[in-house]
Amino acid sequence: MEEKSSRILFIYTRSSTFINGDLDILSGRHIVTSLEVDNSTPSKQLFALIKEFFFLLANIKSYDVVYIWFADYHSFLPALFAKLAGKRCLLVIGGYDTCRVKKYKYGSFVNPLRGFMTRMSMKMATLNLCVSKYVERVVRAVAPGSATEVLYNGIRFEPAQVRKSAGPRQVLCVALATSPQAFHIKGVDRFIALAAAMPQYQFTLVGANMDRIWFLTGKIPANLSILPKVDHSQLRKFYSKSHVYCQLSRRESFSLALAEAMIHGCIPVITRVGGMPEVTGEFGESVFALFGDNFKSSGENSALESAKEAVENALAHKDNIAQAERIRTHFTFEKRAERLLELVK
Asked: Residues 117, 262: one domain?
């Protein structure tokens, strides 16, 4: 049995598919201690940060590596303690921590104090692991001199085959729209407008919390099904029966759901923002991103018409094998695991 060589302090704010993936990778070879810093409310975050401080004060010398998901309030103290104690600190930069969208109050850099802690975390980290080249460019701009490396997210499951069965052509979007911020950043308003403009096709949105965003949606088109968040393992059935995957985000650092949809044979339709073009490569259809909030306007040159044309082209596309192979080649869980273990070792 291989000896577990390093002691790793693994710090995060809330569980997710990609965070659990890294935890599984590291736990397989090393001794890992998890520390969750609850940031769900301001009061819980304050208490969690105080708890984090005393934990680090008492235990930092016991670890070889500090591994942190996202730069934010919760990353400042462990990055500082690691630097003072001469420990390696690997900081994963995921997207929110590189944003400043004032209109929707989205991103760490909207708040000056939060932005300072985010920037200093990046500077103090031994290495910033960026989930896309786009994120790496932003880190280098906001925290000059920081050490960076691109380490793409990796998908953990794939289908036995990607050929679509005959039947109604369906358009899918997976977006965790659990707040007004997420509703706009993930482009859910655009997806709803697109569904209304294409009543001949069936659209499905998975991940919306209607209890929190109902007042933003307006009238829901009859051809649009809106479902709440489902277990990650259940997403494959939605990917498998859909022909087009649509992600009309205003900001997107990578989009794991996009990669998962593509390996299941969905033709992607994306806005050209963030890391999504890195995922799709030459495959799929792109919609020009800089159309502000005029997506519902009509006219020959409108963003809505451009999106409609992109979906029509994607629905007419027959070859979904090559794009699935692209994801299998570049964005697998195994590739991420191999490099992450090299970095820790």
From this structure: no
The tokens for 13 are 């704010």
Q: How many domains does the chain have?
A: 2
State the CATH number of the domain containing residue 254: 3.40.50.2000
Residues 270-323 pLDDT 10s? 999 889 999 999 888 888 654 455 565 555 557 888 899 999 999 988 767 788
**Contact status, residue 2 vs residue 61, Cβ threshold 8 Å:** no
The answer to pTM > 0.85 is yes
Distance CA 264, CA 174 (A): 14
- Backbone dihedral region for residue 17 (phi beyond 0: left; psi -120 to 50: alpha; all else: beta): alpha
For residue 67, give the amino acid letter: Y
pLDDT digits (tens, 9 = 90+) for 152-173: 999 886 665 555 556 678 999 9
Contact 229, 240 (CB under 8 A): no
Same domain, 237 and 323: yes
Sign of the four-CA dihedral 338, 334, 273, 215: negative
- Domain span holding position 145: 7-151
C-beta of residue 195 within 8 angstroms of C-beta of residue 258: no
Angle formed by the axes of helices 188-197 and 210-217, nearest 10°: 60
Q: Which residue has the tokens 């960076």?
A: 148
- State the helix-helix crossing angle for 333-344 and 17-27, rounded to 10 degrees: 50
Angle formed at CA 35 by CA 209 and CA 260, multiple of 5 degrees: 45
CB-based contacts of 288, cutoff 8 Å, min separation 6: 271, 272, 303, 306
Name the residue among 1, 91, 4 with its Cα closest to residue 345: 4
Q: What is the CA radius of gyration of the chain?
A: 21
